[in-house]
Amino acid sequence: MIWRKTAQDEVRQGLRALYPRLWRYCLVLTGSRDRADDLAQATCLRAIEKSGQFVPNSALDRWTFRIAQRIWLNELRAQSVRQGGGIAPIEEIDLPDHAASPETNILTREVLLEVLALPEAQRATVVLVYVEGYSYKEAAEILDIPIGTIMSRLAAARAKLVARFEPRKSGAG
Amino acid sequence: MSDQRSFSQEELTGYLDGEIEPGLAEQIRAAAAEDRLLAQRIEDLRVDTQRIKSAMDTLLGDAPGAPDFLAEEAPSTGAPRVTGRYRLIAASLVCLLLGGLIGMQLGAHRDETWQEFAATYHALYVSGTLSHVDRPNTAEVAELQRVSQALGKTIALAAVSGIDRLDYKRAQVLGFEGQPIVQLAFLSKIGAPIALCIKRSVRSSHEAMRSRTMRGMRAVTWAKDNYEFLLVGGNDRELLEQAAKKLSAQL
Lengths: 173, 251
Description:
Chain A is 69% helix and 0% strand. With 173 residues, chain A is mainly alpha-helical. In chain B, α2 (22-34) crosses α3 (36-43). The longest helix of chain B is centred in the middle third of the chain and has 18 residues, at 84-101. Helix content of chain B is 41%, strand content 20%. Chain B has a 6-stranded antiparallel beta sheet with strand order 1-2-3-6-5-4. Chains A and B meet through α1, α2, α4, α5 and α7 of A and α1, α3, α4 and α5 of B.
């Protein structure tokens, strides 16, 4: 009996599993929960439309993040800037409050705020490389930029984060 | 001052991330050992990326559920929803059943291997089938003792919980043509359900590992001593092959 799932079923199933990470990436790109919801859903719809182009057994996550990036840059971003007069300030994002100790919650919150306060290009790169764990090359493909730009963004992000996390360290004079 | 090569912020970042070639990394390491200013520049770029990842991972629990249109092929009309994939599985099971009833004993499934049956069953699994499973070690150990006894082969918790990139979830006993099958269920890091099915063989057998596609999922089959194995699930061929090797060695 020869029968396999359609490409669309594969993509659909994969997206269900991927959804939390996709949504998180959309939150990082858009800076707001509502826009993250919209972008994540738009991305899933686009991915299903394009599922015929998805190479079976290849990395669904990278393929999907790339779609999200494109939709954000080419379609939704200008719209949200026009509507909202800018990207929503990060304080408006309701940060999660988990059952960890209050000290841990505060530290986690601080780290999140610092990362999300980075300029958009830097925070997207930081999340792809340091959170999702992609290599420079993979991140460059997702963002459709040269590897050199990945490195500049990460260097700039590191300098900013160090200055905020550990003010004693910065400026050796 | 010296004619030492100077390193850019980008190169130092690449050095910290392990993303530059070994030759350059060694150059930087050696230069930093001698040059205090360079060493300070590196320290000024050093960030605890693990702390960033841990903090960002707390957002995953906050994500809304996947949208409804990912769960079904067509909008609900109120009638029971049967997606295309489930329809095909139901149809194939009906065919097999009919094939079994017409002119054959129910037990003699000559045209389908047990692995094909097991793969069909596994195709029904989704992330949510296993994602809620989280039990104490004692329960897992007891369950494994029970299934080991049914199979006649010891399956230790250490053997199944030490597989790279797979989270062990549970075990159950199935059967095929009078032979017990133990199914060990895992979830991959991206939530793909993956199962190792082990069946006692009717004869002593040895078969080399074979990587293949079954029911649209990646699979690896092999046989060793008196047991036949099927590892099935997901789309990641490399993950499955690595896991199969490890599991075969441990069991």
